[in-house]
Amino acid sequence: MSRIAALPGCWGRLLPISNDGTAKEWETTWSGRAMARRRRKTSPQSQRWLPSVGDHYFLILGNGKIELFPWNDTAFDHEAWHFGNCFQTQAQAAQVREKIKEVLLTFHQDHA
Length: 112
Hints:
Elements: E1 3-6, E2 14-17, E3 28-30, E4 34-36, E5 56-60, E6 66-70, H1 75-83, H2 90-110
Antiparallel strand pairs: 1-2, 3-4, 5-6
């Protein structure tokens, strides 16, 4: 039988603890309380660069601005990484931002 333990200081982040004492991270949601949903599967995306605590990464904001963030191993950091919005260099982020702009402009032209 496993038990569920919440990480201190991390709302909505749960770890199932198995009988052998190992912990596996679960994806969680927040709806007034944290709820374990499903375990994330390892995907080919896992070959991408994943920062370590203390590293910094570049993130494309909603307005297209590129900002540098510290990796603190938070839910926000992991969601940015899983979405694909976590870059090791500013040049990588800028390259992707241009592709995103192309997609958005094409969408608006096609739906005008």
